[in-house]
Amino acid sequence: MSDMHYGPSGVAGQKAILTWAVHLSVGLLVLLWVVPTLGLLVSSFRTADQISSTGWWKAPFAAEQVLQVRTADPGTQVQEGDLYVIEGQLLDETQAEKIASWGTSSRDVAAYQPGDVAEVRGGGTITVGEDGAYRMENTEPFEGGRGQRVFITAMVPPELTLENYRYMLFDDSNVNGMSRAFFNTLTVSIPATVIPILVAAFAAYALAWMEFPGRALLVAVIVGLLVVPLQLALIPLLKLHLGIGIGKGYLGVWLAHTGFGLPLAIYLLRNYMAGLPRDIIENARVDGATEYQIFVRIILPLSFPALASFAIFQFLWTWNDLLVAKVFLIDATGQTTVMTAQIVELMGTRGGNWEILATAAFVSILVPLLVFFFMQKYLVRGLLAGSVK
Amino acid sequence: MAQALQALTTILIGLGACVGYFFLSNKLVDVIWPPRGANAGRNINRANMIRPWLFLFPALFALGLYLGYPVFETLRLSLLERVPGGGYQWVGFENYARMSGEAKFWEAMRNNMLWLLVVPAASTGFGLLVAQLTDSIRWGRIAQMLIFMPMAISFVGAAVIWKLVYDARPIDQEQIGMLNALVVTLGGEPQTWLTIPFWNNFFLMLVLIWIQTGFATVILSAALRGIPEETIEAAIVDGANPFQIFFKIKVPQIYGTILVVWTTITIVVLKVFDIVYAMTNGQWQTQVLANYMFDKLFVANDWGVGSASAIVIMVLVLPILVWNVRNARKEME
């Protein structure tokens, strides 16, 4: 269509360049948006050593790493003539195949080349070959209970591990484990998603299809409440909860989430219900159905898409929430901590342990991402209904 | 296990109570004013006057208690001071005076203004760009979805993700944060980005922009698709180039939607808490109002100043609240 207006020459070329520019820029933008998350995901499958020695983007490649290994213990020494000898293989326990350099002191881990001979502190010498075979010799017997510590620098092939996930989820000895927090988060979000829906649905129906004075005003109030910052509610409600004996706990956080979620729920559902065909409702009324019957048998099933939209919103919001949980749920014992709160705590206490942080974060991100990818249709629909007017 | 049971019981009790309330209250109305018999007409009218309020009552009660009442209570608390040993004492505007004497408060105000200027503009701008670019290509939907994905990630999760991007190692070690790796590759020196005053605000804002752009994209893309074809075809016939079509034909037609996206993100920005709390906790001059308030409430235990700062947030939100309500009323008519 547009080609004919670019003049007689170079039309096709110009268009092609533009198309390529579009593809390229979109590609670049997508890359920019996805790569940070990818970095964390990859890191969660790497060991602490790998993370701290190379950037996550180098995970698919072999990397030079310094590994700490031990020779066999002195109990394995044999006597050859007047020499005491320990022999063995250093690379057996590692993934590496070739040694680039080695050392016996943590202050100079690459002091020797393969084939060099070094003094051992307790007396005697050691030599390490490129293939990892070593030989220790001494004129006196080797003593002590453990083998000699050796640092080897070697190319280690890429390796991903599930160990971090096992440690963070299934290791009972791990005080930082996420399994308790995971179930706590689940305990918070499911009731906090289900309960507001029903309450909101009835109200939305009344606001959409029942005639009564003050209806328009009520809708306006709900639109206003939609943007009231929940920061305002923190102290008064905490005071209220403490005053009436709910205290800090699940009940409090469920009620708070219900209250905070209602404006959006009513707004979304009312807009959707108001758009349902008038005939259906009028006919049912003429046929003598009560409002309750109309609501339960007709409106509720027809409103499924809007109900699903809100449910997804509320689930994501309660699952990802930190502030409400910190104020209304988590008490001094920390037994009821949720994942977001625990991750923040880990950022403070284990800030450098990326294998722990990355895994913890991904455990908490996984469920929302699954919901996002499988229910995207409803999420987008809800967003559009909630804001475009 | 006990916990799962408790949650399940709550759902059942909650749902049961809701259904029971709605069902029984409606039944009651039908029994008191039966829609038949001698007074059928009058009874139906009466029942119809009452029934909407039966449907509305639980929602209105919860809204009033959890959102309406706190607004006034916070206002009241901001004018009081807690007396040691219990009770409150009227202090007028002293909390506000105390707050405005604090450097940290003004730092939070300044930073919030910066956030307000940068984040909505950048998110909406990127959103518009992505929406337009993905409109014409075949894999546009997938691209949109991937850019939309951070929307599902919690602010805390995003904070971890970006802390890894900003990670800094001593100069003689290999950098594991992408930003510093890039800087070093280009010949620069690694920086601890989150501790550089003033500029660190922008590194925090980037996280929210990254999250909100997808939201802007989805909505603006729908708006772009809603533009009548004829207007664009007419422009093409008149010889407009793609840039003119975008800026002079398309953007003016979705101006209303752009405004809605802008204000929605503005509200999010005013309430931003988790990102700052998790990444810097307001250190290195990155304080924002919501985190300042949290600090006052739960660390300093100063309910007076905490409430006063909550009221400041409310006042900042108020213009948008009024604008939204007026739009909604216009639409109802």
From TrEMBL, chain B:
<dbReference type="InterPro" id="IPR000515">
    <property type="entry name" value="MetI-like"/>
</dbReference>
<feature type="transmembrane region" description="Helical">
    <location>
        <begin position="254"/>
        <end position="273"/>
    </location>
</feature>
<keyword id="KW-0472">Membrane</keyword>
<dbReference type="GO" id="GO:0005886">
    <property type="term" value="C:plasma membrane"/>
</dbReference>
<feature type="transmembrane region" description="Helical">
    <location>
        <begin position="6"/>
        <end position="24"/>
    </location>
</feature>
<feature type="transmembrane region" description="Helical">
    <location>
        <begin position="202"/>
        <end position="224"/>
    </location>
</feature>
<dbReference type="Pfam" id="PF00528">
    <property type="entry name" value="BPD_transp_1"/>
</dbReference>
<feature type="transmembrane region" description="Helical">
    <location>
        <begin position="145"/>
        <end position="165"/>
    </location>
</feature>
<dbReference type="GO" id="GO:0055085">
    <property type="term" value="P:transmembrane transport"/>
</dbReference>
<comment type="similarity">
    <text>Belongs to the binding-protein-dependent transport system permease family.</text>
</comment>
<keyword id="KW-0813">Transport</keyword>
<keyword id="KW-1003">Cell membrane</keyword>
<protein>
    <submittedName>
        <fullName>Alpha-glucoside ABC transporter permease</fullName>
    </submittedName>
</protein>
<feature type="transmembrane region" description="Helical">
    <location>
        <begin position="53"/>
        <end position="72"/>
    </location>
</feature>
<keyword id="KW-0812">Transmembrane</keyword>
<dbReference type="InterPro" id="IPR035906">
    <property type="entry name" value="MetI-like_sf"/>
</dbReference>
<feature type="transmembrane region" description="Helical">
    <location>
        <begin position="303"/>
        <end position="325"/>
    </location>
</feature>
<dbReference type="InterPro" id="IPR050809">
    <property type="entry name" value="UgpAE/MalFG_permease"/>
</dbReference>
<feature type="transmembrane region" description="Helical">
    <location>
        <begin position="113"/>
        <end position="133"/>
    </location>
</feature>
<feature type="domain" description="ABC transmembrane type-1">
    <location>
        <begin position="109"/>
        <end position="324"/>
    </location>
</feature>
<keyword id="KW-1133">Transmembrane helix</keyword>
